[in-house]
Fold this protein.
Amino acid sequence: MAFEKIKRSENYSEWYNNLVKDADLAEHAAVKGCMVIKPYGYAIWEKMQQQLDKMFKETGHSNAYFPLLIPKSFFEKEEKNAEGFAKECAVVTHYRLKVDENRKIIVDPDAKLEEELIIRPTSEAIIWNTYKGWIQSYRDLPILLNQWANVMRWEMRTRLFLRTSEFLWQEGHTAHATADEALIETKQMLEVYAEFSETFLGVPVIKGVKTENERFAGAVETYCIEGLMQDGKALQMGTSHFLGQNFAKAFDVKFQTKEGKLEHVWATSWGVSTRLMGALIMAHSDDEGLVLPPNLAPFQIVIVPIYRSDEERMKVEAAALQIKKNLEALNMSVKFDNRDTHKPGYKFAEWELKGVPLRIGIGPRDIENGTVELARRDTKEKQVVSIDGIEVFVKNLLSEIQAAIYTKAKSFRDANIHKVDTWDEFQKILEEKGGFISAHWDGTGDTEEKIKQLTKATIRCIPLNNELEAGKCVLTGNPSTQRVLFAKAY
RNA sequence: CGGGGUGUAGCGUAGCCCGGUAUCGCGUCUGCUUUGGGAGCAGAAGGUCGUAGGUUCAAAUCCUGCCACCCCGACCA
């Protein structure tokens, strides 16, 4: 049979790749490292977008759009930023093609651009060049913008959703009069991301700051949320950067204060991407397929009718449609799968693969008893419930599922944070169990780098509100004031 | 970019060593029977073997170049 599947425990990567394909989320495109997001996958992404967008607006932001192409000279202005991205930029050098003697399409050598254009790997450069023209006085501040866009980073090795050459994201770029205000914005957006991840994706995250080595190129401080996937690897799910005055200085963006002084503007930027799709998939799914939290599922409920004769079919459909209507009246999204080309068993399996949180099966037996069969995707539990009052019952059950998915992921995450005090133990836990390792670190980039060389583990973050605790660096034995989180990461 | 591997129908594959225009499964299409956990039977369509060239009477098979993909490394907010 075609549905022999790779088990999660056998080969996590292959399981993930097959799942993305089988659940109809995305596939590799004909373009190097790029992906096609298919309708079902995109529907989930749209749900994420809607919710995030709402949260951005609630915190005072507006959407805008800036160009895809960035003149090379803009890009060079913030040195660290340019350096950090230089190795993975696609460059536009010509603006025309032509047909040559052999009737082949070639790049017209006469159409060479005087200045090359960079396809944005991130938009700080073009946006700060624009902000320069918008900001003169303290009255022009703050600027609180977000853009939904695609960016391109020419990655050597790609994986669907987790790292593709082109990806979709949102990037917020704000400008402020004071450092304090910018820092508050940075932290606020980190909170927005954390809340989104936990409440909607059902993925618990650890909030923290990056070490200097892992910091965004051009940032003064990078805040992040880190999630843990089911194979014990960490995933950076979102970042919020305090950019200080780096970009304002690079692009010469100054404003006049109330007191009449000229000062550089303070900046933040923050983003999450289609990588969140990867997080969603890896955090909850099982051997049967995707497990979607109700808050993000394109369909929260699927109704599968069961019948033999046409007569039965008509009765069942009428009852099913009535249930659908009642559920929709309470703002639940329902798919009625009345395809006559597949049998119920096939549909059960298919919707499980696609992660629909709740399935309602209804057949002649139910019509007679005034019941339906309810099947939960997350626990696989089935129960027979009365049609009478089913809307409220299902509505509550969906909330319960949302909570259960989060709780399960959180238990897993918490069980996989290991406190470690010796180097032997560090290597052993990393090798055998994975997960986060909470250990002392002497605070130097050298040690961090050495640990990375030796084990492939990196410092994911220094957790916010970290308890201070005197200790010794797990590698060097040098004094340390707090534990940091290490993990192998995607 | 270095090391290894792969490329045959929509998907997964056999054949390659030892040249003779291609195997099987899934899927697709038609018909009948089925429908409460991925249906059964019968029949049919679909490829010219990544690409360019070479050797040969004859190339999926041998040789060379190129391309793509996968794994390992490097790289990766």
